[in-house]
Specification:
Layout (H helix, E strand, L loop, with lengths): L1 E10 L8 E16 L3 E3 L11 H13 L4 E8 L9 H15 L7 H12 L5 H6 L2 E6 L5 E6 L6 E6 L6 H6 L7 H20 L2 H7 L6 H4 L6 H12 L2 E4 L6 E5 L5 H8 L6 E5 L7 E2 L2 E2 L1
Parallel strand pairs: 3-4
Antiparallel strand pairs: 1-2, 1-11, 2-4, 2-5, 5-6, 7-9, 7-10, 8-9, 11-12
Helix pairs in contact: 1-2, 2-3, 6-7
Length: 293
């Protein structure tokens, strides 16, 4: 039996829309082995069907290898679905990796990345999930996906805010306008460049000045209950910057200190069932039997 651990990820990181991502120390774990028929164990009933993302990814991997095979997979999931934390990327990464590992380590890391990103449709979650840490990724004109790991200063503290309701990726995408002004495009590009520099150097003041997004957050914030209250409370308490994780509704606080107990109690008055969790960057990305792929 092979154990695969795939981390959660926060895509966009403010102005890095569909490009930047950060792997987080929240994992889905999959114990996999070959089987005579497909079998999924310990998974929500709504996902226990032939359209399951893990199974679909496993079949995609097998097809790329020119084989048809079946898998038995036991799920231990920590990443909540439909929260903007890369749950789908985790399932896809594990499924394709399982196809490769169970057939003689047939895929290189880049081959897995290409297959993952083709299936996901964009690489902002697949890149950090696979490679770990802070990543920037891009699709070239010929359809190839490229990724580069970026430096991340060790002084950063990360806190996740996970509401107890879902926002579908489709809904979050549909909330965005079709066109943007030239000034917004320029502001977004500059913000992404300077945010990467701030994350690399540990420059909190630079991050606070540049990590305000204009492309997606103003529109997706409307889908998150009490977003402005959560942001104001978290930022005033920590001195950091709160961004929407992926398409939301989860949010990620980037700061030099964790949220205080007083702030946690204050926020619970607005969102009683919201989970507030201290996390770290998952530097290793996808793990096979405890080791990076």
């Amino acid at each position: 039996m092979i154990r695969i651990k795939a981390p959660a990820s926060a895509a966009n990181l403010g102005p890095g829309f569909d490009c930047m991502g950060l792997a987080l120390s929240v994992y889905n774990t999959y114990d996999v082995q070959l089987s005579e028929h497909d079998e999924l164990i310990n998974i929500e009933e709504r996902y226990n069907n032939p359209d399951n993302l893990f199974l679909a990814a496993y079949r995609k991997g097998c097809k790329a290898l020119g084989i048809k095979d079946h898998v038995r997979a036991s799920f231990h999931t920590e990443i909540p679905s439909t929260r903007g934390m890369g749950s789908s990327a985790s399932f896809i990464a594990a499924g394709i990796a399982a196809a490769g590992v169970l057939h003689g380590n047939a895929f290189s890391k880049d081959e897995i990345f290409q297959l993952m990103s083709q299936m996901e449709g964009h690489p902002d979650n697949t890149a950090p999930c696979l490679y770990g840490g802070l990543t920037a990724s891009f699709q070239t004109e010929d359809g190839t996906y490229i990724c580069r790991k970026m430096e991340l200063d060790e002084s950063w503290k990360f806190t996740l805010f996970i509401p107890d309701y879902e926002v579908s990726t489709k809904e979050a995408r549909n909330a965005l306008p079709q066109f943007y002004s030239r000034s917004d495009a320029a502001k977004s590009l500059a913000g992404a460049i300077f945010s990467l520099e701030a994350l690399r150097t540990g420059d909190l003041e630079l991050l606070k000045q540049t990590a305000r997004d204009v492309i997606h957050e103003p529109y997706r914030a409307k889908l998150i209950r009490n977003f402005e209250t959560i942001r104001k409370t978290a930022e005033e308490d920590s001195g950091g910057r709160l961004i929407i994780s992926g398409s939301g509704p989860a949010c990620l606080l980037i700061a030099k200190q964790y949220l205080s107990e007083a702030a946690r109690e204050k926020l619970s008055a607005y969102e009683e069932h919201m989970m507030i969790q201290n996390v770290s960057a998952a530097a290793g990305g996808l793990l096979i039997n405890g080791e990076p792929l």
